Amino acid sequence: MSSSSVPSGPGPLADAAPLSLCAREPQVPADRLVAEMVPPPRFDSVRFGTYIPDPNQPSQTEAVRVLEGFAAGLGEAPAGGGKRRLFGFGKAAKKAPAGPRGVYLDGGYGVGKTHLLASLWHATPAEKSRKAFGTFVELTNLVGALGFQQTVQTLSGHRLLCIDEFELDDPGDTVLVSTLLGRLVEAGVALAATSNTLPGKLGEGRFAAADFLREIQGLSAHFRALRIDGEDYRHRGLPEAPPPHTDAQVTKTAYATEGASLDDFGQLLAHLARVHPSRYGALTDGIRAVCLTDVRPVPDQSTALRLVVLADRLYDREVPVLASGLPFDQLFSEEMLKGGYRKKYFRAISRLTALARDAGRLVAGH
Q1: Which of 18, 113, 130, 313 is the most exposed, fewest CB within 10 Å of its CB?
Q2: Distance of CA 227 to the CA centre of its chain
């Protein structure tokens, strides 16, 4: 993360009170959902050349090589040609390309899968309007906003669709997206996806890839699975998660930081229930730092899943999070961390911890 994207620290006390996420109820038109299907700001400048493979993990270097070739091949693959042209290249439509028309990046937390997925999007030689990038949740929200048929029509003219954090824990949504992808494959759209190996399965080979390929059923032949091994880069060589600050520190920093929001954690959780998750990105528009007081355990699974989506949006936008109360690794109960949604909760802990480190500079010297 670049230092220029995080406020350097509190300045003179602001005349006005901090912003409040709880006071915001954004309305997001459907066309904005489509227009925003690009890599998030955190990944604006990433490229294959900025990905630094771990020399001890040869699978990382191999993944870069394969994805560079995949992107180059898409430059000759016009979308929208229908099933007959799924594997066609221009005039040589009868010849199939050397490999599958989809790639699946299989690996644990923080090994750079999203960096590579965004690099693929950037490297694909097509106009921005003809390639899309979004999370699994954002894709299901798009279907909810546009309807299934309109979503198919909207995305069928694309050359590439990248899906980050493909979720395997909701059978209904998985069937919905799998059906959508089937229609897009017929239209000649290339696909790329990531998801996380479940926490209890790390080190057990291609568990996530096998799960993914089974869930998407008939589409599995169109994907090549790339295993990416490695440690979570967000914790590689970095200090442990910082301890929470006091209410007074959080409040003072919120008043002293331009564009900061200040909310009670419990009240924010209640507010998230009144705002559709597809609008959580808009909820954070213009926010330069999120300050939360009295962080406490999340009371139930529905609330926890909403918090996961907010954490993703804040991480995508590189918004530092300063908090008092409990540390973020105590947000979710042991039962939650052992349940079916545990990969989401571990991802949220990892990302919020990274944002809490970013927020440290806001209170430096105080």
Answers
A1: 130
A2: 19
Edge-first strand order for the sheet with 102-107 is 131-135, 160-164, 190-196, 102-107, 223-228
Neighbours of 233 (CB within 10 A): 16
**pTM to 2 decimal places:** 0.73
- SS3 breakdown of the chain: % helix, strand, coil, rounded to 5? 50, 15, 40
Which residues touch 25 (CB under 8 Å, ≥6 apart)? 274, 275
The answer to whether 251 and 360 have CB atoms below 8 angstroms apart is: no
3-state secondary structure 165-200: CCCCCCHHHHHHHHHHHHHHHHCCCEEEEEEECCHH
How many angstroms separate the CA atoms of 314 and 295, rounded?
Answer: 16
Those residues whose C-beta lies under 8 Å from the C-beta of residue 108, and which sit 6 or more positions away, are 196, 197, 202, 229, 230, 232
Beta strands of the chain (E only): which ranges? Answer: 102-107, 131-135, 160-164, 190-196, 223-228, 260-264, 289-295, 321-325
Q: For residue 131, report the phi and psi dihedrals to the nearest 5 degrees.
A: -145, 145
- Give CA–CA dist 366/352, Å, rounded: 22
For residue 341 the two structure tokens come to 């949604």
292-334 tens-digit pLDDT: 999 999 999 999 999 999 999 999 899 999 999 999 999 999 9
